[in-house]
């Protein structure tokens, strides 16, 4: 194929002189409001990076399964049961929820659940049924079926469990929670007192100060519920736990003291609390019972209330 001739131009080629920096137009400085917006976004991004942190176990092939394990703490054999989601995803950062049993109970009874019509609790205090594969549960077993926490040994147990679980499983380390009934509630309170930077929120069901409170001067989000007819741990003990965190969290005390509405529970959300450290209190007319229901209902309200309280921090 013959190529067409390229037409020559008679126009001379002009070489432009080099542009000196002094001849360039000066860039426009962003307006003050725009600059503040950019700085604010940078600060928020940094805060988000600090506040949200995934555990070392994220992305790893897990070795921990849903079963019982034994470790040695202060020379004593300690047992605990793990429950990981049926569809566990090692790239998803899960909530980590500790569930502590009552006096005379056991980790296995928390896993299996007990008859709620005879003062028992639903499996995992009803939380696993609501978690939809977003939470990992740790169910410790107490010495002598309780949580005396002598010399802080049960808090040390908690420390070791957090370390072991998060080294192997994918956890959002700002989403650690603790709950329990009676002695289990007391142990959750002891953890909040001693490890306020390690626990995001606790839910104390019919608890009292039985496991000690080493520290106890820092804010921790607090949910509590108690019955005015509690024949095992008087309601005054539950109010004492609540009032510590009303004070620590900077909330405005409520006066007069909240009371049940007939056979129905009354939920009080305290006002004026420090951002991120709410306090919720539920009072009912019942006895020492983790599965109290409102009039006309057969469903315990503790699981729903607890899950809603924990979920607000997601």
UniProtKB/TrEMBL annotation:
EC number from the UniProt entry: 3.1.1.73
Against InterPro entries, the record matches this protein to: AB_hydrolase_fold (IPR029058), FaeB/C/D (IPR043595)
Name this protein carries in UniProt: feruloyl esterase
Disordered: annotated span: 1-28
Q: PANTHER family this protein is in?
A: FERULOYL ESTERASE D, PTHR38050
Compartments where found: Secreted
Catalytic function, reaction form: feruloyl-polysaccharide + H2O = ferulate + polysaccharide
Q: Which UniProt keywords apply?
A: Carbohydrate metabolism, Hydrolase, Polysaccharide degradation, Secreted, Signal, Xylan degradation
Which domain of life, per UniProt? Answer: Eukaryota
């Amino acid at each position: 194929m013959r190529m067409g001739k390229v037409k020559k131009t008679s126009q001379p080629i002009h070489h432009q002189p080099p542009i000196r920096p002094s001849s360039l137009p000066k860039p426009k400085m962003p307006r003050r409001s725009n600059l503040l917006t950019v700085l604010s976004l940078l600060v928020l991004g940094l805060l988000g990076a600090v506040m949200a942190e995934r555990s070392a176990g994220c992305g790893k092939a897990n070795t921990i399964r849903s079963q019982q394990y034994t470790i040695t703490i202060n020379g004593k054999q300690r047992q605990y049961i793990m429950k990981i989601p049926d569809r566990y995803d090692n790239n998803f950062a899960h909530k980590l929820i500790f569930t502590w049993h009552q006096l005379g109970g056991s980790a296995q009874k928390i896993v299996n659940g007990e008859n709620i019509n005879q003062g028992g609790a639903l499996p995992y205090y009803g939380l696993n049924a609501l978690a939809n594969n977003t939470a990992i549960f740790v169910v410790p077993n107490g010495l002598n079926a309780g949580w005396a926490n002598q010399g802080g040994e049960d808090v040390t147990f908690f420390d070791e469990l957090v370390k072991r679980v998060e080294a192997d499983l994918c956890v959002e380390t700002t989403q650690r929670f603790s709950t329990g009934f009676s002695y289990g509630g007391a142990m959750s309170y002891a953890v909040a007192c001693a490890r306020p930077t390690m626990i995001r929120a606790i839910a104390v069901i019919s608890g009292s100060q039985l496991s000690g409170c080493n520290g106890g001067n820092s804010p921790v989000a607090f949910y509590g519920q108690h019955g005015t007819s509690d024949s095992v741990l008087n309601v005054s003990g539950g109010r004492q736990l609540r009032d510590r965190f009303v004070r620590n969290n900077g909330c405005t005390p409520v006066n007069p003291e909240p009371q049940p509405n007939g056979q129905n529970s009354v939920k009080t959300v305290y006002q004026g609390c420090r951002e991120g450290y709410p306090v919720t209190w539920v009072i009912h007319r019942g006895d020492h019972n983790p599965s109290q229901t409102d009039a006309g209902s057969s469903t315990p309200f503790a699981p729903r209330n607890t899950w809603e309280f924990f979920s607000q921090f997601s």
